[in-house]
TrEMBL record:
Keywords: Monooxygenase, Oxidoreductase. This is FAD-dependent monooxygenase. GO terms for molecular function: FAD binding; monooxygenase activity. It comes from Nonomuraea phyllanthi. Pfam families: FAD_binding_3. The keyword Oxidoreductase applies. Residues 35-279 form the FAD-binding domain.
Amino acid sequence: MGKPMTGIVLQDWKSGRLGEFGNPPGIPPMLFMFRHDVYRVLMAEAARRGIPIEYGKRFVDAKEGDDGVTAHFADGTTAEGDILIGADGIRSAVRSLIDPDAPGPRYAGLISFGALIKEPGIPSTEGKMNMPFGKKGFFGYQVFDDDTSVWFANFPQAEPMTPAQVRETKPEEWLRILTEAYAADRTPAAQLMAATRPDELIVVGPMENMPRVPAWSKGRMVLVGDSVHAPSSSSGQGASLAIESAIELARCLRDQPYAEAFATYEKNRRPRVEKVIAATNRKNSAKAAGPVMRIINAWAIKTFSKLAKPEKMAWVFHHRVDWDSPAAPGLGNVPEDARIIGPK
């Protein structure tokens, strides 16, 4: 599953090369994949193992007892278990139960769109993702050898919009707005958008990330994935971080009582995920920059790309959860400078 992505080429609005970043030495090529493909594989495996999946349920509350926890749903039904894992996304209801004062998602000043299209009309990018900083928005595209292409656009929007508000505008209208906005750039952006049918447009919505979440667990409840550490899509690491955390949590629960397991899980994961989020926030600032800052950013990227050492970014891709070793508090395989992140 997935298609290889061997490097990222940063460009200006004229398709001029600002810098290229490949995989760090010793790291296999990144794989580009859509989340719906990941969901399909995970759901098929759940079905194979006989794990039931309930649809049409909206979680509203949880009550803990001496021997377990009961989840309550809006339709009046309940479910019981030893623990409750809140894998319920960036607007997590479980997070609010664990800590009513927990922060919510923070808007990054961008709306995200994308598409997978056939016969884009431009040649293969030979395994590389091109990312131009356009005059009015950031853009990314890759053309595969099978004559399909993916593209995404991070469109600046000063006023925050909810996902529902973004989707009130029809895909046809968004395509018109985007095509006009990127038309002045000397990149394939407008051409790829013109080749996109409205039913192919993926309206992702506002780009958001999670500020530092003080409490990851309480009693028999614990958070995992976007509910506790959602980077914006600029990181390219959201799904990866969620999968890593799920495996680490499972390992801790395998080896320790739940209260100790929750503490070990948080200690092992917090440094890594907060370092990724901090790096992503800097990327989003560059994408939402105005005309003057775009010039400054282009100069900075050119300079950085000449001085950067690929091995410095190996920590992002080289993380491994040692499933076979006993769970114990550690540092999450994150460099020294990532051990303390955010306010204390």
